[in-house]
Amino acid sequence: MASEPCDVCERSVRIAGGIGDLWNFAFESTQGLTLELSDGSEFFLCFDCMEELPGDHEPTAEDVAELKERTEPVEEDGNSFWHWR
Predict the structure, then answer these.
(1) I need a labelling partner for 57 at 20 to 30 A (CA). Which of 30, 41, 50, 66 fits?
(2) 6: Cα separation from own chain's centroid
(3) Is 36 helix (H, G, I), strand (E, B) or coil?
(4) Would you write out the chain's pLDDT as a tens digit for each of its 85 residues?
């Protein structure tokens, strides 16, 4: 299993596939994607943070920065969840 931190909430996000999943037969789904935005910027975001991006226009790096400002980082204890301010 591979993982990468979300660029907004900093949560470790599962990336499905790869040789690790072949050997342990993990069939869990991916929890995030790398987005290339209309301004040419690129971010890896979990699906929950993606849903918080604006829907009324094409998101930009500025929108991601604003989302990060109002998002509390996640504590990785397995029970925590992040909260938007």
Answers:
(1) 30
(2) 4
(3) strand
(4) 678 899 999 988 887 766 655 565 555 677 899 999 989 999 999 999 999 999 999 999 999 999 999 987 766 555 444 444 4
Query: Do residues 27 and 65 touch, judged by C-beta distance below 8 A?
Result: no
Measured in degrees and rounded to the nearest 5, phi and psi for residue 68 equal -65, -40
Domains of the chain: total: 1
Distance CA(13)–CA(2), nearest Å, equals 8
Domain of 53?
3-70
Cα first-last separation, the chain: 31
| 3-state SS, residue 46 | strand
Residue 85 within any structural domain of the chain = no
Amino acid identity, position 20: G
Check: CB of residue 44 under 8 Å from CB of residue 33.
yes
Type of residue numbered 83: H
